[in-house]
Amino acid sequence: MTAVDVPHSSRSVVLTVSGVVEETSDARSLVFAVPEELRSKFEYKPGQFLTLRIPSERTGSVARCYSLASSPFTDAEPKVTVKRTPEGYGSNWLCDNVKVGDTIEMLAPSGVFTPKSLDHDFLLWGAGSGITPVMSILKSALTEGSGKVVLVYANRDEKSVIFRDELRGLAAEYPTRLTVIHWLESVQGLPTPDQLATLATPFGGYESFMCGPGPFMDTVHKALAEAGVPRTQVHAEVFNSLAGDPFQDVELEEVTEEEAADAATVEVQLDGETHQMSWPRKQTLVDIMLAKGLDVPYSCQEGECGSCACTVLEGNVEMGNSEILDPEDIAAGYILGCQARPVSDHLKIEF
């Protein structure tokens, strides 16, 4: 593999692979060494992901998002876990080529699939490599939180179980707080909504976080609805292949005097601070925040990753591609900053 030394954008960094762990026959973890000067940039929350730049002979590179399986509270270095997928260029390249000492370009941790508090009781759902962000939340909740954790983990068979030994060790270490339920297709078949609803019913007050293939998540959504779990307690992580190139610096279009005069005004709450800005109608929320030099969370700018999800507290926006948001999310006021343009004259938005 060719070493990467210089980042392709002002937002990306190059890290060295400090460890490669063969988890199963088709999944491996990559551990990254973070130099002291980048420590603050690489602080992350349980459940977040990294966007990696993977070389491609056809297109120069492709961008892929991989969840952090490590916990910021228990692991000295960040770790992503990659499982091969049929026809999956990025996952196969990473599994075939990367070794200790190689360098990989990436964006800083991002994503909103993360608990607001680790002191909740959690009902976690993972299928296949969907265990990765769930594992980060699980370890963090056990270490830093005070509640109980139930994990329902679905796989094809016993050989497919990623983190099998680590989960066994955690279950032994936290016998009164952690319950691990394995669902093996080879033994039980594919789970049905009724079966999972039966599992979920005793834990109706728990916060549910789920990650896995689409059909699995659809089944879990139906099961939780059947079990009477409120939609506000259900959180899902969805990844799509990124069509754009998040490793290109964004060039903003010039705003004419007429467009500036017609601009909306917006109050944005970000990281505990409030920012007042002018918002020209043709620009997205991410555009104007970048122009102001704000550290806005975003990755793809295509509406495909959910990194820039935020909440409209006042006013209305129009959005381009927002398929990653559930109808319930949109009804609750969630928008994608990279797709949102103002309709109202005055808006208030919270990240």
Automatic annotation (TrEMBL):
Gene3D superfamilies: 3.10.20.30, Nucleotide-binding domain of ferredoxin-NADP reductase (FNR) module, Translation factors. Residues 264-351 form the 2Fe-2S ferredoxin-type domain. Keywords: 2Fe-2S, FAD, Flavoprotein, Iron, Iron-sulfur, Metal-binding, Oxidoreductase. Its cofactor is FAD. SUPFAM superfamilies: 2Fe-2S ferredoxin-like, Ferredoxin reductase-like, C-terminal NADP-linked domain, Riboflavin synthase domain-like. It holds the Pfam family FAD_binding_6. InterPro entries: 2Fe-2S_ferredoxin-like_sf (IPR036010), 2Fe-2S_ferredoxin-type (IPR001041), 2Fe2S_fd_BS (IPR006058), Beta-grasp_dom_sf (IPR012675), Cbr1-like_FAD-bd_dom (IPR008333), FAD-bd_FR_type (IPR017927), Flavoprot_Pyr_Nucl_cyt_Rdtase (IPR001709), FNR_nucleotide-bd (IPR039261). Residues 10-116 form the FAD-binding FR-type domain. PROSITE patterns: 2FE2S_FER_1, 2FE2S_FER_2, FAD_FR. This is 2Fe-2S iron-sulfur cluster-binding protein. The lineage of its organism: Bacteria, Bacillati, Actinomycetota, Actinomycetes, Mycobacteriales.
